[in-house]
């Protein structure tokens, strides 16, 4: 199903009473959620915990050389063994949660800020503003994302800032499309018109009138885009063009330990599974969220 | 006059022609973007590539080799003109005595990638449409839920995980297939097939889920229409309702999804080729990005982008030409 459906007007209110009502309904829905959705929430919570408290729970430092033996097998001290330089794989995995998830969240946020704002503005003004921005975005979208990212990285060089900015700009095109489509319907509604007649400024209309009405779907999209960004940045790191060493990053970790695969050792799969687990969890949560929203909309 | 002539053309042809023109326009715009990225080069690019010890003379020579000393428009038309003649320029890896032409580096690899992508498409597209139709037919049943869960999972995991899992179990532990897919010219066909199996499998798993899910939802979307209700009321079997009444009206969204995913295949090959050391254009591009060999990167990007645009164009045309409203204008 396309997720572009207009939210029901009864859902919409800026008053505190109804907001708390919505929160109650959410926690009620969460309690009633199927077991696998609860499990997904638990997984996300564990990841966030690892990301926030990496310094406390990781047994060794991020790039600390703990063993003279590279590629040590799993043992009591280094639970998942050591990597190609003799660093603790488990510790790097935990720091990787901070770096990989952090980079993905920052990138997605920038993409939403840019794409969302532009999308709403294009929908609000229509006319030539919309035409110019939309055509530009169309052209950007005509180039496959990863390919465009590769090209820009070869021009600007690989660094974390470049990675975040390039992926954010490329990803904001998709956000723009969605935000514009959603805001199109809202921008012609009576209450936006009455806000205009009232003389509210553009910022007010965007943040107080349009945004609250398209927010639920944008939230769901944020989850999906986060997964996509995490997969893209990990793929780039895996190709050796993303997060530069010695930072711990799941994609880079797969690449660094990949030679173990040919000996049948599954250690390189662990960071890849770490990526998979959180993206699957977020995807299932978004799927569930859209379902309960669809249900409450009738 | 022209306007009246335009009106004489059937709407179907007219829409297709306008789509084709739009496609050409997009291609031109994309080539401008790909070209102009070189102009966005940071000022220190030459020293970054040549090293700190580069003398002003070598930097100037380097810039003239990239054509950076000529006006932008001239450079663009030279570049496009060269491409139209099959001349993609010189790779930065070429030394003064031994030029390496981008076209030579790419040509055989392009064929390999094309082979990989088309074999994958031939397997994945029919399979996902059949699975999608079956899911729509048995929606809500155990089969649908299981396939749905699996597909949601495969959508959200990185390709290199699928690749490595298959590599460990099928190639390393069971030793059924080789771990590397370094195909060469002159290899016999059986060996070629054996080496290509794993990459094709990984790519198929990667794109099938999305196509299948969208096929399912496209058909289910159509199922709420009045004519489906009518078909059910007159007693048509569920299979007949879906195959004869729903599917023809769902072709347009399905064609779109297929094209989007085939275009996505273009991206997927980059990772898969790297994992399996398959000598394709994706691997070439990654290596070129690493060495910042811009002419090579540009050529690869242009090829990938053209394939992507072309596939989307084909999808649009299929969607238009299967649209009953355009096929049977009033």
UniProtKB/TrEMBL annotation, chain A:
The keyword Chloroplast does not apply. GO terms for cellular component: plasma membrane. Keywords: Cell membrane, Membrane, Transmembrane, Transmembrane helix, Transport. It comes from the Bacteria. Its main location: membrane. Residues 97-286 form the ABC transmembrane type-1 domain. This is ABC transporter permease. The keyword Iron does not apply. The chain crosses the membrane at residues 35-58, 101-125, 145-170, 222-243, 269-290. One of its GO terms (biological process) is transmembrane transport. It is a multi-pass membrane protein. InterPro entries: BP-dependent_transpt_permease (IPR050366), MetI-like (IPR000515), MetI-like_sf (IPR035906). SUPFAM superfamilies: MetI-like. It is found in: Cell membrane. Belongs to the binding-protein-dependent transport system permease family. It comes from Mesorhizobium temperatum.
